[in-house]
Structure formats: C-alpha cells, structure tokens
Write a structure and sequence with these properties.
The chain has 395 residues and is an alpha/beta fold. It has two domains: 123 residues, 3-Layer(aba) Sandwich (Rossmann fold); 260 residues, no CATH class. Strand 9 and strand 10 form a beta hairpin. The radius of gyration is 22 Å and the shape is globular.
C-alpha cells in the first residue's frame, strides 16, 4: 500500500465540504485512494461501483437510496456512467448539507466536469489524482525505475525491471476503444492511435496543428479538438507559454507532453533504462517527467492559484518550466541531463527577463545541491521537492 500525498488534502477538505470529486486517468489508483479515505472518516460509509449492474440499479431510485443513507459517506466509483446523477445530487446535498456526504470518482473528465459544473457548483471540490509520484516511492524505487515505468500503479509495481509492454498495450486499447466512445468521442480508432504515436514522437515539442492535420488528413481545427480531448482525459499535458509585458517576441504555441513517462517509453519502443539512455528522446523524456512531477507535487502541497508554463522567445531565450502567480513569475526551472551543467546564456536571459526569485537547474543526480552563482541552484528531484516545500511554507 503506497501512501498518496493527496490523501491528507482530501481528508482535510472532507471535514467541511459535502463532497469531493476525484478525477484521474483509468487505473491510476482512484478506487484504492477512496477505500483508504473511508477507513479514516469519522462516519460510516458505503461504496458503489457503477460498473457493477447491481450497484447501478441500487441508486436508480435516487431519493429513496440517499435518504436511507444520509448519515453515511457514499462513495460512487465510475460516476461518469450515470451523468444524470449530478443533477439529482444537487437537491440531495442541499436538503442535508453535511461534510463528507459524497466521494465521487471518475476518469472521463469532460463528461464529469460539464455535468457536475452545471449542478454541483459550490457543493463539490475537484481533486485530480496524478500517477504515483517519485516522492511517494523514493524509499522503495530508484529514480531510474520510476522514470522508466511511470506512475501507473500496476506498471510501476511490476517486479520486472523493464517496461511491461503487454500492460501498456492493454491500457491504450481500453482507453481508445472503450473510454473515449463512452464519453461520446467520435474519433476513428486508427486516427487516434496514429495521433498518439505522433505526439510521442514530438514529445516536449511545440504544438503545430497544421503538421498533424496534414499527416492525418483532417482539419487543423479538428486535430486541435482531438488534442484538447486527450488532455482532458489525462493522456497528455499541454504546457502553455508564459506571456510577459517585456518587449520580446514570444513563442505562442504550447508544448505538448505525453503525461506518463511509462506510456511515452512504451510508445517509443523503449523497454529498459539502458535503451532509454541511448535513445534520442532522453532529453525530452527527462523534461516531461520532471514537468509532471513538479506540477503534480505543487498542486498537492499548495492551495494557491498558481500557473505553470514555459518561456521562449524567437531570439532563443528559454526556460523549461515557470511557476507564476498571475503575471508574476517567481520560480524558473531548467532541466538538464548533464551531471556537470553549465549556465547557458539562454537561461540567464530568461531569468533576467522574468526577474524570478528562485532559479534552478535540475539534473538526474546531485546529492549535495550547490550554487553556480548567487542566483541559480543545481539540484536533483528529491532536493527540488524539498525546496518547493520550503518556498510554499513561506507564503
């Protein structure tokens, strides 16, 4: 049993909110988290899985079922299978508004967000469950293994030291042929397979809709809608560019990453860490892996409204990850594969443009963080997370 860092946050919210909605990719661990939460609640609970026809039928008479169980926390898994439920829950919550009344779980984000926003605004808090973070397994898994296999529990906890190609093949097949049709996504399976593989090939690159549309024979508008769907269903990360009021010619296209490093490596036909070390994608793989780890971690430890982006100008000034409060950037992070990185003019100029207070170059291994100058620290992921804890405790 892996203790998830988001668990503490969820329990804290359930002390005052009538419901939470746990979102995340299929097989990411939402059910396991919910079952762990129910053991720590100060009230009885009941668990329903809407993929089970018996459980589905139990809540068809919504008023009767929930009135009989109004003093329990009702956990409903795969809630996207009953989209009409959200409208019904509005009146049920209002008639007996108490903390921890509902925990709703689902993986089809567009359906859940649309239906729940219409009905449960002010009545539910959304929490996105990321893959298992390095911080959650760093005592039992090496960084190399976590980076190679990614954050899906089944894939990561496999005893094999290689990518479980059968599991990832099954995951993508179910995602494309079952999950997306379930939310009325009318995309030909073959087109989607090709798009996902193209996104893996261009992982960490700038989005160019026309390039994808020409290759797949669909319009740029259509291909952009496919991209947005893949983001909302947690297969990819879209990192927007950071806009400032400095007089620079800013790159305006977002970067696109395959969200889970294990999925990326499967799509890139990488099966072990030695193969990754010799693969052309390694630099972008490292960048995407760190982007996902840091964004997911910061969202858990901070309640602030923060924005995440990258910075690049047409003159070549660049920074891989920016954390900002509105238009004010305050953390700049550059990812390097080198064990002895140097400060580039590109990164130095980015820091100057953005006037960031906390600046880092993050490398795979650095047991003892050090400064290259008064303004930039060199460290590894573990120490970076410690730095983030310190920063956010200050505010």
């Amino acid at each position: 049993m892996i203790k998830r860092k988001i668990e503490k946050k969820a329990l804290s919210i359930l002390k005052w909110s009538p419901s939470i909605i746990l979102l995340g990719s299929r097989q990411i661990g939402k059910t396991t988290l919910a079952k762990s939460l129910r053991t720590q609640l100060d009230k009885p609970s009941i668990y329903l899985d809407l993929e089970n026809i018996n459980d589905f039928n139990r809540i068809q008479d919504t008023s009767l079922f929930f009135n009989e169980n109004k003093d329990k926390c009702v956990i409903i898994d795969e809630v996207q299978r009953f989209p009409e439920l959200f409208a019904r829950l509005r009146g049920i919550i209002d008639s007996h508004r108490v903390p921890a009344r509902f925990i709703l779980l689902g993986s089809a984000s567009p359906t859940i967000l649309k239906k729940s926003t219409e009905s449960l605004t002010g009545r539910a808090i959304y929490l996105e469950l990321p893959g298992i973070l390095w911080e959650e397994v760093n005592e039992s898994k090496s960084l190399e293994e976590h980076w190679l296999k990614g954050g899906f529990p089944t894939a990561l906890l496999s005893k094999k030291n290689t990518i479980n190609t059968i599991w990832f093949q099954s995951f993508l097949k179910n995602f494309i042929e079952m999950d997306l049709p379930q939310i009325k996504a009318q995309i030909p399976s073959l087109t989607l397979y090709r798009l996902i593989r193209m996104l893996a090939h261009s992982h960490g690159g700038l989005w160019n809709a026309s390039t994808f549309s020409k290759s797949l024979g669909v319009s740029s508008q259509t291909i952009s809608s496919y991209r947005d769907l893949l983001e909302k269903t947690y297969l990819i990360n879209i990192l927007p560019p950071f806009f400032t009021n400095v007089k620079k010619r800013i790159i305006k296209s977002p970067k696109v990453y395959i969200k889970d490093s294990g999925v990326l490596h499967y799509l890139s036909h990488i099966v072990d860490f030695n193969q990754l070390l010799g693969h052309p994608i390694i630099g972008h793989s490292w960048e995407g892996y760190i982007v996902e780890q840091i964004i997911s971690y910061v969202k858990i430890i901070s309640d602030e409204f923060l924005e995440f982006s990258f910075y690049r100008t047409r003159e070549g000034t660049e920074c891989d990850l920016i954390i900002s409060r509105g238009i004010k950037a305050f953390i700049a992070i550059e990812m390097k594969m080198s064990t002895s990185p140097q400060i580039t003019r590109s990164f130095s100029n980015a820091i100057k443009d953005l006037d960031t207070k906390h600046n880092y170059i993050l490398i795979p291994e650095c047991k003892h963080p050090y400064s290259l100058n008064n303004n930039i620290r060199i460290l590894d992921l573990s120490n970076m997370l410690n730095e983030l804890n310190t920063i956010f405790k200050k505010y």
